[in-house]
Amino acid sequence: MARVLIAGESWITQSTHIKGVDSFVTSSYVEGVAPLRTALTSRGHEVAHLPAHLVPSDFPDDRAALEAYDVVVLSDIGANSVQLAPSVFEGARPGGDRLAALRDWVDAGGGLLMVGGYLSFTGFEAKAAYRNTVLHEVLPVDLLPEDDRVELPAGARGQVTADHPALGGVDGEWPLLLGYNRVRPRPATEVVATIGDDPLIAVGTYGEGRSAVFTSDCSPHWAPPEFCEQWPGYADVFGGLIDWLAA
Fold it and tell me: Where is the Putative glutamine amidotransferase domain (predicted)?
């Protein structure tokens, strides 16, 4: 059993309703973590979820705090949210460098998984911005300097390219995915699944630890229900990634 921290995979939406000359605003809070959390807990892993709005205040501040976990998953949460604690961003007081702490924790034996989305890797309008941080060196892939999203409205299927334990023994045809973040493999990277000509799942090592990427999403919209809710292989893939990262 691995102790897993998932950071991100939630959002708050505001909608403006205009009815003639009158208007009003409604707000809603949504979590997209359910498919991933269910898949991992079904395989016996202990999962803690840190929603996106709590990441700035509650993400582990140092390597010692990260020792509570075996694997950290960053999913659809940008570098700014991890780095800029309220005391730093709002109070202008020096604080810990959380991404440097995460890098050092992986170097000492931790496991890191980044899952794709609009605020993963480089992200929408380059706002995820991990390329400019120390965490970039930990990932098994190089990130693009520009918006890296590849939208696939007609869908495309992941293709297994290597027999690797990180795939969890998944078998058969994959359901369609509707997009991903484009990345480039590094020389020592093992690309174990592709989408189009690009990496979908890539794994590597960093110091004594391990890192992996899943460049599409773990929930809608890039991961339709047929992929993240109805496909048995979903739990195989993400369970295999966590097992490998925690080994």
Answer: 3-246
Contacts of 85 (CB under 8 A, 6+ apart): 56, 57, 59, 61, 95, 96, 98
Q: Output phi, psi for 189, to 5 deg.
A: -75, 140
Indicate the angle between helix axes 233-246 and 34-41, nearest 10 degrees. 70
- Its domain, for residue 134, covers 3-9+30-246
Query: pLDDT tens digits, residue range 153-170?
Result: 999 999 999 999 999 999
Tell me whether residue 14 is in a domain. no
Reply yes or no: is the peptide bond before residue 221 cis, omega within 30 of 0: yes
* Residue 120 pLDDT level (bands cut at 50, 70, 90): very high
Quick one: pLDDT at residue 17? 97
Domain membership of residue 58 (yes or no) is yes
Distance, CA of 66 to CA of 126 (rounded, Å): 27
Strand partners, 151: 179
